[in-house]
Design brief:
The chain has one domain. It has ten helices and two strands. 31% of the residues are buried.
Length: 258
Amino acid sequence: MADDTNPPIDTAKPLELPTLNKTLSAWQQRLLAVLEVLLCSSLPTQVLIGGVLTAIGIPARVDGEQLSLTFVLALSLTDSVVLIALMILLARAHGDSAWLLWRGHLSVTREIGAGILLVPVAVMIVALLLGSIRLFAPGLHDVPDNPLESLAAGGPAGAALFGVVAIVAGGIREELQRAFLLQRFERHLGGATTGVIVLSLAFGLGHRVQGWDAVIATGVLGLFWAIVYIRRRSSIAPIISHAGFNSIEVLRVAMGGS
């Protein structure tokens, strides 16, 4: 049954989770946290999975130029499954509950509602940022044809499949990943503020293929969703907001929007 006595957003506190293995020294725990951040950053898993896909005959690009939707779909969904399983295993190895980390203590209904309300906020953030960049710093729009957007512009079937990627790999996996990595920073790598800044920068730079304007926009979005998580201590609202934003973007591109 939902608990209607939950604290307001500005009083949400870190979940009471056990610390990492107490038999390790402080520097060993920091090193372990760094290794876990790197392992769960998507870089090692995507390189490995991408190599396997290429080896079995699924190329990353079609005709040597355009990204392959089949490759992106297989890579993103497989990486999501692998990463979520890996984070659950690592949480259990430390005596943590990944479910508690992601679910939090607030009412699920309340968090879903908050996430829905935050979708237009995310859309407005990006619209203002990209509009300002194109007005005052147009040189940052250095990728005229976004290679990811082209995957959603190839017809209804392509848009639907890319929408699945945007929701699962973007809305769900990235927000579960963000909460897991933030916990590592909060415990051993400089605190929550350091984690929010580092992960937001990394999130933005991870979209470099889409242009520097996309780097800035996604970095600020990452900052926004990280702050939402830190204040609410639940991944539900960020997941709903992120998935909703991505869905709107896919629909915009599929309908020929600019």
